[in-house]
Amino acid sequence: MSAISYQKVVKNFGAFQALRSLDLALPDRTFLALLGPSGCGKTTALRILAGLEMPSAGKVLIGERDVTRLQPRDRDIAMVFQSYALYPHMTIADNIGYPLWIRNLDSVKRGAKVAEVAKALEIDHLLDRHPRQLSGGQRQRVALARAIVRDPAAFLMDEPLSNLDARLRLSMRGEIKRLCQRLGATTLYVTHDQAEALTMADLIAVMNAGQLQQLATPHEIYERPATRFVATFVGNPPMNILSAAVDESGLHVGGSTVRLDPEQHARCLGAGITEMGIRPEDLRFAEAGSVLTGEIYVIEPMGNETLVDVRLGGERLSVRAQRGFTAAVGSRIGVTFDSTDVCFFDATGSTVVHRVENKRG
């Protein structure tokens, strides 16, 4: 396996700039999720690494090799597509062994390698079948087997689970993570699904409008988002954002003034704060007249918990409440929070003060 590096990579499609000076380093044997909404540039970045697109500027390295202008076949990468891209007229054994066949590996060694990989992915009983005879999950395993059969320098996966139903996606998330950990594989995984990124990846690169917003561990992305965009894109429900200001007397939000942790207060003063963010699970209900007072807008029972939307003037708060929570829609309710759970943003959308570190041990 090998490290991967994008160095000031730009990609233009006519007047549209899909990637804007992308600098991104993926250490050897690391699983990186490229996460972002449709049109953010994540698939373009993957295709440039695969050699399916040429960058307008910058370069791409796999290990020590500059592969920017190399053909896909010369890059020593394997790609798993959203559509699986299996050959319908070939058996499963031939589909898996195809990368070895085009490299002229003799049939005995090829058969042994195919059998080894198929057994590892628990599809060895399917080798004589054709793709049309397989379920979606089985086809996905075949596509993975074809990718790993030749021990490439890196695996590239382009939303490989998006065609599966919700239950199968959950199962395959675990399978892919377990497989990549066992192989020690350097993996670049493109997804718009934050659950996939948070549960599978060692590192997450969040992208928006062709720019890298943050590169960090899943824990860091969730707990200490670098920008307002990251804060609201990662998390379900997303982080609540409220207009706010901080002066010598404290935090002004929702018509109330809240005292801040002294160290946090000192960092906030003069930081140009215009908004605050807080996760739904960090809000608590209280008597009306508490820190914030609003009215219940909608209640969504989720089985193990209840999501409650509270209207606060012209803004809305999402609160994660306990299972069985009930209240009348339109009734007044108080919402309170610990100020150390709050992060603060300036007018550009950058996080200027994070929540207090190590609060939760």
Could you provide a short overview of the structure?
With 361 residues, this protein is of the alpha+beta class.
Please provide a written account of the structure.
The protein is of the alpha+beta class. It contains 9 helices and 21 strands. The strands form 4 sheets. Strands 6-7-8-3-9-10 form a 6-stranded mixed sheet, with helices on both faces. The protein has a 6-stranded antiparallel sheet with strand order 13-12-11-14-20-21. Strand 1 and strand 2 form a beta hairpin.
Keywords, separated by commas or semicolons:
membrane, six-stranded antiparallel β-sheet, alpha+beta, six-stranded mixed β-sheet, cell membrane, 361 residues, ATP-binding
Write the layout of secondary structure elements.
Elements: E1 4-13, E2 16-26, E3 31-35, H1 42-50, E4 57-62, E5 65-66, E6 77-80, H2 92-101, H3 107-120, H4 136-148, E7 154-158, H5 166-183, E8 187-191, H6 194-200, E9 203-208, E10 211-216, H7 218-223, H8 228-233, E11 240-247, E12 250-253, E13 256-258, H9 262-268, E14 273-278, E15 283-286, E16 292-301, E17 305-312, E18 315-322, E19 332-337, E20 343-346, E21 351-353
Parallel strand pairs: 3-8, 3-9, 6-7, 7-8
Antiparallel strand pairs: 1-2, 1-4, 4-5, 9-10, 11-12, 11-14, 12-13, 14-20, 15-19, 16-17, 16-19, 17-18, 20-21
Helix pairs in contact: 2-3, 2-4
